[in-house]
């Protein structure tokens, strides 16, 4: 990413001041090189984003699609090629110098012997120097491209819509972003090095042709057979490599789900069943890898050993012509050394072919992600959600106009849904499970696009508003909040990483979280565990509320945000929220009567549309459906509250 130095100016807020509207900021768009002020940035990036990308044309081969990225590091590649050629030239010259040394020894020429000996030492030093530089540069090239690929694929993953993650297993994504990229990196690091051995083959063979053409052809005779074996090996290994990578992703999915769902696994005593599932997956990988190993065992020895026949033929034919005085002993010695160089590419051909097939399969799996088109993007005429005064301070008017939507086209969730919320109004959405309450919040935040109709904020269709400004305006607290494995301070300050400690504390106090945080051994510096599961559900929800309040959104959505909080704490939170909701449009998705009481207007959902609306008292008197919903849901809430109030506590945490 480009370096970012612009930050949000800190706004000192007390708990009673968190409901103030956003402070005035200069109009956006004056400097395109700087991000809008609603993008929270903690520090300037230390990594320069890739200067090139993967070729988007899916009809091209996998290497051609990778070429723009390789060319972006052409300086390393060219330097590696130059140092490799210099090192190989020195290596090729050694047997030639040795030839003259042996022939000089046979002729009793001591001066030539000393000169060639010194030359061989110098050539060896040159080979060591440039060979080391060649490997350093080419491995650096491979690692740089791997780093760029990770950045490219992760940046693309952040742009993909929620619908992609709805249908894709997380293990598949993790595998492709890690092990598949590593497979490509290994090939990119070793392929140029092995290619240098091909160059040594050409140089050595050219010298052999110059010295004795027929002897050179004898040495080359077995090599066409090596090429044929390599082709057979490649066609057998590629499909196996693809299957192996796919099954590795399946294994990663199982591990990921078992780690994230370990509480479910343990609560149902399902450890042995999950181990058996993992074992079956591992056996599937083992079968594939055994087939690859079998192919390597059958083909690699032939590929590597066939050139040795050339050595025997050189010794046989070369020895015969040396006996008859057609070549010198030094020439025969040089040819024996050059035959070894001819064999070098073929000794590594098996590894290169296998790794090339693995990299090809891995690259195609990576391209499947990169070729995925985000469904939710900014339109070409998208504008920032800015008030007429040119400030980041929207009014907060929300309209749902005849909205229809379904996560699956044949199963609509909302059907002809109409709702109009005035700026600063507090509205509660009530309905049975599956009535579409949470879907309303997701459509407003544009996690999904409507199938028909329109969702508008301040009269503008959300599809014509930039995503970053829309989501900066809307604060969403869900019933199952996600916490990062970081300190409580950093979790609360996630949306405003520049916020001071006093601002974080003020937000925590407003969310009634300060009390239990202060009792922790390290207070706000306490690092929460995976997803925050070492805290109670109510504690996680309070931290999530504090995190949202700190961003000071103009539109606040509470999606069962206090469902895991006991009634005593909830009452204190509600008292704070009454103040915080002033001049702030609030949508409350709730089941509890205590939460519904925060709203000025209650909207009842049924069959994907608004079935009734009014005050709580009006609906209670006139809507039997509303009464029935409250009767059933609040029985469940009562049981939950009873269990929470009677659960043991330890170190200020609800167990």
Description:
It is a single chain. The chain contains 22 helices and twelve strands. It has 655 residues and is α/β, with parallel strands linked by helices. Strand 1 (398-405) and strand 2 (414-421) form a beta hairpin. The longest helix has 53 residues, at 271-323. It is elongated.
Short recap of the structure:
This protein has 655 residues and is α/β, with parallel strands linked by helices.
Return residue spans where pLDDT drops below 50 for at least 5 consecutive residues.
1-36, 636-655
| N- to C-terminal distance | 42 Å
* CA gyration radius, whole angstroms: 35 Å
Q: Treating each run of at least 4 consecutive H or I residues as one helix, how many helices?
A: 22
Number of strands: 12
**Averaged pLDDT:** 77
Layout of SSEs?
Elements: H1 62-71, H2 74-107, H3 110-159, H4 162-167, H5 170-177, H6 179-211, H7 213-220, H8 223-260, H9 262-267, H10 271-323, H11 329-347, H12 349-370, E1 398-405, E2 414-421, E3 426-431, H13 437-444, E4 452-457, E5 460-461, H14 467-473, E6 474-477, H15 488-492, H16 501-510, H17 514-519, H18 537-550, E7 555-559, H19 567-580, E8 585-589, H20 593-596, E9 601-606, E10 609-614, H21 616-622, H22 624-645, E11 649-650, E12 653-654
Parallel strand pairs: 3-8, 3-9, 6-7, 7-8
Antiparallel strand pairs: 1-2, 1-4, 4-5, 9-10, 11-12
Helix pairs in contact: 2-3, 2-6, 2-11, 3-6, 5-8, 6-7, 6-11, 6-12, 7-10, 8-10, 8-12, 10-11, 10-12, 16-18
What are the defining features of this structure?
single chain, 655 residues, alpha/beta, six-stranded mixed beta sheet, 22 helices, elongated, disordered N terminus, disordered C terminus
